[in-house]
Amino acid sequence: MQAATTTSGACQGYSQAERFNATRRLSEALVASLSDADATIQSMPDASPAKWHLAHTTWFFETFLLRDHLPGYARFDERWPFLFNSYYEAEGARHARAARGLLSRPSLDEILDWRRHVDQAMQALLDRPDVSALVELGIHHEQQHQELLLTDIKHALWCNPLGPAFADPIPVAPTERDAPDWYEHPGGIARIGHDGAGFAFDNEGPSHRVLLEPFALAGGLVSNRDWAAFIADGGYRTASLWLSDGWAWVNAEGVSAPMYWRGDEAFTLSGWLARDPDAPVTHISYYEADAFASWAGMRLPTEFEWEAIGQSHDASGGQQLDVGASVNPVPSNALFGGTWQWTRSAYLPYPRFRPANGAVGEYNGKFMSGQFVLRGASCATARGHSRSSYRNFFYPHQRWQFTGLRLAKDV
Amino acid sequence: MQAATTTSGACQGYSQAERFNATRRLSEALVASLSDADATIQSMPDASPAKWHLAHTTWFFETFLLRDHLPGYARFDERWPFLFNSYYEAEGARHARAARGLLSRPSLDEILDWRRHVDQAMQALLDRPDVSALVELGIHHEQQHQELLLTDIKHALWCNPLGPAFADPIPVAPTERDAPDWYEHPGGIARIGHDGAGFAFDNEGPSHRVLLEPFALAGGLVSNRDWAAFIADGGYRTASLWLSDGWAWVNAEGVSAPMYWRGDEAFTLSGWLARDPDAPVTHISYYEADAFASWAGMRLPTEFEWEAIGQSHDASGGQQLDVGASVNPVPSNALFGGTWQWTRSAYLPYPRFRPANGAVGEYNGKFMSGQFVLRGASCATARGHSRSSYRNFFYPHQRWQFTGLRLAKDV
Amino acid sequence: MQAATTTSGACQGYSQAERFNATRRLSEALVASLSDADATIQSMPDASPAKWHLAHTTWFFETFLLRDHLPGYARFDERWPFLFNSYYEAEGARHARAARGLLSRPSLDEILDWRRHVDQAMQALLDRPDVSALVELGIHHEQQHQELLLTDIKHALWCNPLGPAFADPIPVAPTERDAPDWYEHPGGIARIGHDGAGFAFDNEGPSHRVLLEPFALAGGLVSNRDWAAFIADGGYRTASLWLSDGWAWVNAEGVSAPMYWRGDEAFTLSGWLARDPDAPVTHISYYEADAFASWAGMRLPTEFEWEAIGQSHDASGGQQLDVGASVNPVPSNALFGGTWQWTRSAYLPYPRFRPANGAVGEYNGKFMSGQFVLRGASCATARGHSRSSYRNFFYPHQRWQFTGLRLAKDV
Amino acid sequence: MQAATTTSGACQGYSQAERFNATRRLSEALVASLSDADATIQSMPDASPAKWHLAHTTWFFETFLLRDHLPGYARFDERWPFLFNSYYEAEGARHARAARGLLSRPSLDEILDWRRHVDQAMQALLDRPDVSALVELGIHHEQQHQELLLTDIKHALWCNPLGPAFADPIPVAPTERDAPDWYEHPGGIARIGHDGAGFAFDNEGPSHRVLLEPFALAGGLVSNRDWAAFIADGGYRTASLWLSDGWAWVNAEGVSAPMYWRGDEAFTLSGWLARDPDAPVTHISYYEADAFASWAGMRLPTEFEWEAIGQSHDASGGQQLDVGASVNPVPSNALFGGTWQWTRSAYLPYPRFRPANGAVGEYNGKFMSGQFVLRGASCATARGHSRSSYRNFFYPHQRWQFTGLRLAKDV
């Protein structure tokens, strides 16, 4: 089943065991081209080493599944949980986040050995009803880290003046699909949030009603060509287009273009390449997305508006991650895929939301201040991972993810 | 009309001229006990010198009313706009915010002279229909700065190891009013936002519909006694109660109590005084308010829930600012007054919100990221200034304002 | 004795009482033109408010003389030592240095009252042999703070965009004295350090021998004209002229001229004035002095070379502080006065140096790392305060003092 | 000549070619136990990756020897000088020092290939009179980086909670040599500095005379046992023992013991090991050395005093680096070796010192501000590298080198 080893593995119609194993294999496929040193470095506190992602996801299964539910399981190394816990306060003290890049040991090979050890032990727990939800959480957790692994290694390689490539580019067939200029919505009461069928993160519920005003959502993502027009029109130098915090950020950081732009090129996982004007713009902050929308005389959608449209679209469509390889957004008419889409909604709890008990309750709820919601999926999102109710979230200044935007307007 | 000189001046039934003059007199009454040096110092970048508040509000009238609408008016001093513009990009460069405390010149007396000069010139514009809305904005703008002046000088005096008093405490009669334990609301579609009668800031509109789930809002504010129980129960040391950003803030700043607490005392505008256990807790951050609500097994209200209840309450009631004097929250059953109330709503634009054109369009809209909404009014809010649709906003870590909380719960 | 109230007061031939009283009066004369607010502000952590200098010098007499040696003396205010101790660890905890500018209370008038109270009590101790050395230390300590008061208020007023003047300029007669182009010295063993007659700080001793190579010291100070040539020749852009730390400093701070330069003007205690090309350059860091000397193909003198020449010069000559007024360096041929002169000597203990016991032992010795020695005296040094053995010292990046340079060369 | 491949290579009696090749081999021996990831990480801006040291020393030979003196030589990779220039302004822009740890490419293997390429090309230049001095400089330059490589990788491994070992400890025979309690010196005129025979760095000259007072230098280094007594006596909590900058450093950094101490253990290149009380204390800052000397009622020597004694000692004796292996100070009576010894002398130019022309002139002179001189040699100094005139230098707060102290006193 060679293909499965490099597919995203969360597709419907497969058993949990198949999906678990496929997801684990994809993570390893993602680092196939990396040296031990590549997998060790950390280029900023927001990012983590590739090796750390491989280890942390393994720690998740070892801790919440094997330790808690497999009698007699002995940890592979008692000293490693301290190194690879991310932010679970209930799991105790941990290595400082900003110092993850100093861990030359354990080596990449040792981490891969640990993964094999854990995977073998995990087979006993797969498709077992009592832990099925936790395993599912672990699979989707690892998919999130697959995307972070790609964006983090992209940032690290960009910091190297040699601009090394992560992997050769993969030709992606353009998505030929009819899409209207605008998806119109008449407003009214919409049902928002996950309704309970299939896996979802706790922050996607409870399902509830939201009252919408009439609006329209653009049929396509804002492109590099659109963005170049914004720059040419002085977008980054016009204070009146910007949120106050955004204007301070532009000036403090000297921002004048999306991250990774240099002349007519952009840094990609395949090194410095010419930009495609028709491809969606990516690596922009919320501040930039909001300023662009102001410049265009429109606005960003709310996450509820987006979801109301998204419910009738195929969440597995568009450009998403299928195999371990270099990814970069290409032109597409799909609602999902390519880049995540900033919304103007702050990341806040839905009515009657309650986090789960225990350490896994720290998964989402505690991040509900200061961040904005993104919807859709990106070229680095494992296909099958996202949903119309899926809520991604980042701080408004962050832009090392594959972030982009789709405009909205009142009608 | 001595009384008017120290009343808040925005009450209904008075002419605009009466309200303008009363507001201007109240600002001056607030600094009556301050020396030139007291009025000059700045204790942190978030705060401004008292003198600066007197000057900035005067700059507002001189710029947007006298310069723009009174032919032949000559600025009192051409060099001062650079010093006293706050954040209006459209009005050009300005003195660095963090360096406001270095301006020993112009002196407090010179600023008071400027105020008299501007007030005299302003008389020709009061109650004139074409500029009436701008004058009204200026009055409410000055009232906002009255509250900031009080909270800023409180912070500055607190930084002095001598703990000097701003003024003697004023006895405040307890508000005797029946209030239920909980205000219950059945949910449904509520109309939110200012409906157009009387003054409101642009961020309070447009009026629109919001769908609410059934909820209840507490009849009283959380008290110092309640807060002491939270502390005694380890509230500040229990990670699971806190938002992630909040927990980082608690640890980075070493927070273990509300601002201004010391043993059984609290610093007030009358110096260090014993705390009244029945008075509402104040000077807490959003993070603290949220953690307290989690500890209490409840939550903060949304701003929409708060407004749905607030629409049937007297916005001029409760403990609010009437005269230039020391203020400190006292026990009360009123919905408004005492302390501002944190909501769990991020400060975001209402549907179809558009900022005004020109410099005054920078008043509110550009701050719509990263902050949370507070509702109600505090003991330092000029009576008549607030409304049920009023949206105050601060960053989640800020707590030098008179901030408190009122719990909510699902029903 | 009106004249004495504004003379520097350390001249020979006067009694200690006369010198004490004259020194105290001069300090007060220096603040005669300052408002309470002017005297309160602090523009950077290195500087202190004028009021603080008046208070700290008074604290010195109250603590080390009145408290320790005048039976029955009661402190003027028991809470003030915490505010006005500078750095004496042996005297306990103290107010944070960077927060001195927040002390609007006590007011300038209260500090002046305190000074009168202390001065009156001090009369009983003046010219008393057992405390004579401590009183002398207090007088010279206060003279040091007079110079700091002037340089600190200069910096604070410069931070104000209005550029207010401290006082009107005082015409200074040019010093007409013959000076050679170079003072030559044949080298050999020189005796360095204070020999015991008259007051000196502990760091000026013990007197000891130093072996000098033949050298020459320039007859004049480097002038503004000389410095303009350095700038015109790209001095601030030529890495090879600079010490490594200096080059980092130039680039981090964006330095391209001496402090207080703006076009053809310089900020002075009388506001912005045209620069005199013949006046000595001032407000330069050690890094700049060293780079200039490299550019000129010469070097800075060692402190021992300077002293070997200085021993035959009049330490009370040249432009030094006589009255409370605006000061600014003027052309002069004197060895002393005008500006302090950077030497290439690090500030280190002389052979067999031992600090005194007790708190006053903290006066000098504990600063002997990281700083460089300056010799001579400046226009802001109380005349009579300096000596040929006098060792002033600052960090190499500091330049808000009246610092300049005199070149040296090997012969 | 296997032995030579792991000896320090600067011994007398060998040809330049032999010494060049031995030095190059030793550097490679030092990284024999490191993975690519180990050799890539950088744990603080003061430190550099092991790989970087290997590359930078190679860049030195490629640039100043092969490029400048071997006609037809083509750089191995034109892009690498940007990465591996350290601080030579004359050689143009370069990669930011603090970002050296992000260079996962080129890999360790690629750097080793580069070394072979350069070494091969270098053979044509060895023992050639016209470039002999430059080659000699390159050899000694590489020896300095060998010591930095060891101290930098020690720091990096210490940052890893696993505390991995660099290599197994090597048994070192205790140095049995008679040493007096004190080396006494009668004072008088001493000749200081390198006299011209054999290699020396430019900062060791010109040779000149210095007048010394009578003094004594301790026969042994301060030991771990001595230091424990200092700690037990409250040394780190007694302000009066410390320089002002040192006391600020102790409090800001929370320092309470030498670097790498933990209970009765210390981190070494062989991981966490029990401390030998008789071994010299190491990894202390100048501030700590100075405070210890004050506590002991003595002082640090000047660099001139140290050299006056050192001239009659064997600079190749004591514990110094012979082979690529784990090193850690052991008890010894030798004057050289074990740990570098802080002196109380600031690092300043000797009389008539002039840096060389061109880029190599940046080697030493530009660092002559803010640092203190250390004398002797450490267990990580390649044997044969140091001399009695050798001047090592670091900032007073730095302590990741093998730094220690030897007391002095006046007699």
Structure in words:
Four copies of one chain form a homotetramer. Chain A has a four-stranded mixed beta sheet. Residues 1-10 of chain A have low confidence and may be disordered. Chain A has ten helices and twelve strands. Chain A has helices at 2-5, 16-30, 50-69, 80-84, 108-122, 132-158, 224-232, 244-253, 286-295, 303-310; strands at 182-185, 188-192, 208-212, 215-218, 261-262, 265-268, 271-274, 340-346, 372-376, 392-394, 403-404, 408-410. The longest helix of chain A has 27 residues, at 132-158. By secondary structure, the first copy, chain A, is α+β, with helices and mostly antiparallel strands. Chain A folds into two domains: 16-159, Four Helix Bundle (Hemerythrin (Met), subunit A); 182-410, paralog of FGE (formylglycine-generating enzyme). Chains in contact: A-B, A-D, B-C, C-D. Chain A binds chain B through residues 87, 89-90, 189, 208-211, 213, 239-240, 242-247, 286-287, 290, 344-346, 348-349, 351-352, 361-362, 366-370, 372, 396, 410, and chain B through 87, 89-90, 189, 208-211, 213, 239-240, 242-247, 286-287, 290, 344-346, 348-349, 351-352, 361-362, 366-370, 372, 396, 410.
